[in-house]
């Protein structure tokens, strides 16, 4: 099975209309990103500041992982033979470069990430040289820990990603 470019998926949203009816909603475009030789994709949906029927989200206005009490939903890819090194300025506020083990690709976020590899494969590297190769069908839960992505393989890796922002201090119990 071949999957399309991660920026070409179709988002279908079912929810309440302005009149309160339930219907399929017309939504705006995804927030696309492209770090040549590192990663490309799109965030299709985001919720900011807490989840409810009244605040179930919208297409994001910018590329970022989930903020406090929020979530994002998207598709990402790591091109074949990529090292995962993104400049700190490209990461924005949603991620922090950690440079663990002197690896410029090591970064962390204030999110819990749920990811599903749908094509290709990629190495997930943790501090201390710990590594797992993720393949189609692998499910990953990432708890905001420092990590790097490496794709030394001959095909792109495409995966689905949902990020959930940690609770803000005023909401935490």
Provide a concise account of the structure shown:
It holds the Pfam family Cupin_2. With 173 residues, the protein is an all-beta fold.
Radius of gyration, in Å, reads 17 Å
Q: Describe the biggest sheet? A: 6 strands, antiparallel
Give the termini separation. 45 Å
Give me the secondary-structure category: mainly beta
CATH homologous superfamily designation: Jelly Rolls
Order of helices and strands: EEEEEHEEEEEEEE
Strand order of the largest sheet: 3-4-5-13-8-11
User: Hey, roughly how much beta strand do the residues contain?
Assistant: 35-45%
CATH architecture: Sandwich
Could you walk me through the main structural features you see in this protein, from its secondary elements to its overall organization?
- The protein is an all-beta fold and 173 residues long.
- It contains one helix and 13 strands; from the N terminus they run βββββαββββββββ.
- The strands form four sheets. It has a six-stranded antiparallel beta sheet with strand order 3-4-5-13-8-11, with no helix packed on it.
- The model has no long low-confidence stretch (mean pLDDT 88).
- Residues 87-103 have a biased composition (Acidic residues).
- Residues 107-162 form the Cupin type-2 domain.
- Pfam families: Cupin_2.
- This is Cupin domain-containing protein.
List keywords for this structure.
Jelly Rolls; six-stranded antiparallel β-sheet; 173 residues; OryJ/VirC-like; RmlC-like_jellyroll; Cupin domain-containing protein; three-stranded antiparallel β-sheet; mainly beta; Cupin_2
